[in-house]
Amino acid sequence: MADIFLVPQFAIGVNSGLDMTPYPIMSRVNATLGELDAFKAAHPRQQPDCPPEMR
């Protein structure tokens, strides 16, 4: 269950300009989850109501 919370929180950190290198395990987990089809399909930019300028 932690997986579904890690990815969005990690994205917020990255998008806020935080240096995530002090968190190598979280970085690795985030990268691994990002390769899964379910996480790719669930990404906000993949949703039909995502504004074109955000895609």
Automatic annotation (TrEMBL):
InterPro entries reported for this sequence: Glutathione-S-Trfase_C-like, Glutathione-S-Trfase_C_sf
Range of residues in the leader sequence: none
Annotated ranges, domain GST C-terminal: 1-52
Protein name per its UniProtKB record: Glutathione S-transferase zeta-1
Gene behind the chain: GSTZ1_1
